[in-house]
Structure formats: C-alpha cells, structure tokens
Amino acid sequence: MSIQPYPSFRPIELSDKPLFDKAFSASPPEISEFTFTNLYAWREAYGITVSILDGILILRANKGAMPRFFNPIGSGDAKAAIERVSKETRGVFIRVPETTASLFDADGRFKVESDADNSDYVYGTRDLILLSGKKYDGKRNLIKKFKSTYTYDYASLDGSSAKGCLAFEEAWCSVKDCDSVEGLDNERRAIREMIAHFSDFALIGGAIKVNGRMCAVAIAERLNPKTLVMHAMKADPNMAGLYQAMLHEFLSRQGQSFEYVNLEQDLGVEGLRRSKLSYHPITMVKKYTLTLTT
What we know:
Layout: E1 10-11, H1 17-26, H2 36-41, H3 43-46, E2 48-53, E3 56-61, E4 68-70, H4 78-89, E5 92-97, H5 98-101, E6 110-114, E7 120-124, H6 125-130, H7 137-149, E8 152-157, H8 165-176, H9 182-196, E9 204-210, E10 213-224, E11 227-235, H10 242-254, E12 260-262, H11 270-277, E13 283-285, E14 287-292
Parallel strand pairs: 4-5, 11-12
Antiparallel strand pairs: 1-2, 2-3, 3-4, 5-14, 6-14, 7-12, 7-13, 8-9, 9-10, 10-11
C-alpha cells in the first residue's frame, strides 16, 4: 500500500525502503535514528507510522501521552512541515537535529529544548583504529589482555551467518535479564529484525568466536557518505577486553572506508556515558525537542 498524503498515517512497511532511501539520499542524515533499518526495526517499540506532506516523509511515534513526530525526511521545506503538523496536532517533534532546530531559534512560537541524552557520539574512525597516544592507553591494554588470554577467530557476517547472532543475543539477554527491562527487550526485538533482513538492509556485521562460540557481535551500516553508524555492539561481559577488541577488530577490518563512526546515544545512562566518553568523541550530533507554545 502506498504512503498516504498527510494527515493520514499508516505503519512503515518493508516495501517503503526505496522511498526512504531516496529521501535520505536527497538529504543525507546526521542523526543515528535516520536509516530505514533503525526506523523499521524499532517501529513496534515506538509505534512508528508514516505519511507524506508536500513530498516530505512525516514520521509519527504513537506510543506516549501525546503525538510525537520525527524530523521531516527529504529535501523539502522542513520548517513549514513542522509548523503545519505542530499546529494541527499539538504534537511535539523529537530527536530533531541542530540544522533543523536552528531554523526556530528566532521563532517565539516554539520552545527549543536540548535532548542531551539522545545526542550521538561521533569519532574519527582512524582514531579508533590506531588508538594512538596516552589517552588510549587503557583501551590498548584491555585489547592486549584479551588477545593474550584467548585464541579467537574474527568473521564478517552476511545474511546467512548473521542468523548465528540470534543465539548469542538470547544468551546475552539471559545475563542482562532483558525480559524484565523494557528497553533491553525492545532492543532485542530490533536486533531480531535486523538479523532477519540483514541482506535487504545492506548491513555490515562482524563477530568474534572463541573455541567456536560466538561471544561478541557488531552490526552497523552506512549513515551518510562519510559516516558509519553502529546499531548494535554486544560482547560477553565476563571476558575482559572483549568489547574493546570487538570494536577495534570491526573498524579495522570493515570500517576503514568511512571517515567517521557514530556510536549513537547514551540514553542518560551514566555507565554508558562514561564508556562513550572514554573513546574521546570528536563531536556530538546534538538533538532537540520542538514544541509549539502558542
């Protein structure tokens, strides 16, 4: 079924991918949410539906107390689209990149609020491959510890071999008790979707195996011509240095063609924030919430 003109919305479908890809190509995304993979994989968690307004894709998240919308997708007039949708629905726009939020700096009708918990961490890929200098001493030491403790194999993933990630994800979830944590359960569902459509979404993946057992996984894809976005990075928490080794191996073997790597947000989780800061991001992709106040 084709995407309906605004104000009609319907759920995202796999058949929508070419249209989304065309829109992202016309206006290369900055924020980690904006790949078809992410939007489709998390569609049930957010209740994502889509409409089209003056050639621009409008995404609505139907979970929550009020209507929430994502930044318009495409090369049309994003400001006009946000103004109209906000006025007619009294909804808020979330995860809005700075380039769009800045259009409302002088617009007294809108409140522009920083959303630091959802800002993306961006690194120089070469920095994370070389790990040069004193600031990366800890990372190099952890990788060295892992390599001296374990004999391992690294393998890139394709649509067939990616299915092996399902058992690993379930084992990881049993340790983290995903059944009792809504965010982790939603992530598990999203990863299942990514694995099911690994080839269709042109994902890039890698895994580390120790004694034939998969113990770390990375799943990523192209965000824009210069940037790789990491959708999932999981490692056995009982193997010291494995997470650091997984990231280093993945970028060294499969990320070299990208100038930057986006490791997504910290969601306000202090431990995750410390971990991402410890890799020394070169910039943050800031995001904002826009609310019509008049």
